[in-house]
Amino acid sequence: MGLIKHSIAFSVATLISRVIGYVRDALIAYYFGVSTITDAFFVAFRLPNTFRRLFGEGGFNAAFVPIYAKEVKEGKEREFLRSAFTYYLLINLLTTLLLVLLAEYIIGIIAPGLKAKSYFDLTVLMSRWVFLYLIFVGLSAFFMAVLNTRGVFFVPAFAQGVFNLCFSFIIALSAQSFGYYSLIAGVLIGGFFQLAFHLPYMKGVPLGFSLRLHPEVKLMSKRLVPALMGFGVAQLSFFIDTFLASFLALGSISYLYYANRLFQLPLGAISVGMANSLLSALSLGEDRKKSTTLALRFILLLSLPATVGLLVFADQIVDLLFGRGRFSAEDVRTVALVLQAYSLGLIFFSMQKALSSVFFAKGDTYTPVKASFLAILFEGFTAYLYAFVFNFGVVGLALGTASSSLFSFGYLLIKTYRVVDWRDFTAGAVKVFFASLLMGWLGYILKTSLAHTYTLLLIIPACALLYFFVLLLLKEKLLISALSFGNGLVKKLLNP
Fold first, then answer.
1. Cα dist. 285→16, 296, 358, 361, 443 in Å?
2. Which domain holds residue 144?
3. How many domains is the chain partitioned into structurally?
4. What angle, 0 to 180 degrees and rounded to 10, lies between the N-to-C axes of helices 215-245 and 366-384?
């Protein structure tokens, strides 16, 4: 149950961070709506935010954790950690400097359609400042990897929540007076406090500087390049959306951002925590088949009802969360359609992350890279087809992303088919599917009967209770085990 314990801790912290992130996005929507400012800012923030995902939630962890875990076991972590930290910091600073200097060319590459639009210069200006966030998020990612290896999952996951909280305060206090400058200030001040939040928990870690290139750092570098390529290729999904959306009507980039942020709420809480926990568990030598099957079952247990919920309640969710201020009714409808399209890939995105961890734990970074690369080619083709040939517009871009998740998952599943206990997985999947079906039916009935948006605050908990009640009636062992762990945690908190 250590895998579930760590995953729950990470997922809870990530969920809290995402909720606070919603507050940040709701404030942006309230003060700026869907406009040239939001399109410019979301393009500017795309690159550093992608680096955060790349280093904080993926590639760096995949290369660093297995090696660092071995060094800790052997009591030889000091020299490795100091060498790794020194070169990581140098590369981070150099990368940030280059991005700031080349901002105009970079924006021209990732969003070429903006060159012909009036807010291109504004996008470049915001990019030069926002790119400085990379310094803070890069160091935060390093600390996350160290703490995850040491069994600390909640703190580094919640650090993003600190960023979102600070960002929200800055917008609330200064948006009306300083306009888009409040967005820039929010990113930089939030990034500083995000980094600072890790420091008290790094006590006892033999961190320092050393220009000596440790042999294990060389090995990590060899694994890091393909690992970053793999996760980087996966992140190209966001750039494909931005690239193509820059040629669509004003607001398309913002619609994608708002919908994707809502989509990332369940995705981040479900998949990232389990993928990182699975990677740590496999790196420390736990049973591969048992751990992988458990991870996939846990992901399905949470992601399938989340998918059903997003499909049924998309309009009401977007209206409840963003439908005020400068965010119009038409904006609500468009974002809801994009969110529904994204949600079709939630299960496959989540499981694909877990299957990638199976390869990373044994040092195989090539297979996930290949899977991601093929998926991105598939996405580029399908997104263009849906958006421009079938004229689905911005919704088509989200459909292309969902299609690529299915492709990538299928490719990795073929490679890991024997690592899964299919009898155990199928037994749980049938129960989850039946419970989700009943939950969706109840949700649809209640949604049509109770038309007011705010009744959603009652409908969703009612649907969730039905879902878990049905699973308990069906004696779903994974849910019972998770509830037992939660009960024990509550008792421990009440009686420390």
1. 30, 18, 12, 9, 43
2. 2-486
3. 1
4. 10
Predicted confidence at residue 275, as pLDDT, reads: 57
Ranked by mean pLDDT, which of 26-35, 49-58, 418-427 comes out on top? 26-35
CB 403 within 8 A of CB 260: no
- Backbone CA torsion sign across 388, 392, 396, 398: positive
**Does 275 fall in a domain?**
yes
178 domain-assigned: yes
Backbone angle region of 475, left / alpha / beta, with phi > 0 → left and psi within -120 to 50 → alpha: left
In a domain, 297, yes or no: yes
* pLDDT tens by residue, 377-397: 999 999 999 999 999 999 999
pLDDT in tens, 26-53: 999 999 999 999 999 999 998 887 776 6
Q: Which of 25, 42, 31, 28 is nearest to 245 (CA)?
A: 42
Mean pLDDT of the chain: 84
Task: Judge whether 146 and 82 are in contact, CB under 8 Å.
Answer: no
What is the pLDDT averaged over residues 262-288?
65
**Has residue 237 been placed in a domain?**
yes
What is the amino acid identity at position 286? E
The dihedral sign for the CA sequence 199, 202, 203, 208: negative
391: left (phi over 0), alpha (psi -120 to 50) or beta: left
Ranges 46-55, 295-304, 325-334: which has the least confidence: 46-55
In angstroms, the CA 410 to CA 351 distance is 10
- Residue of 243, 270, 199 lying closest to 384 (CA atoms): 243
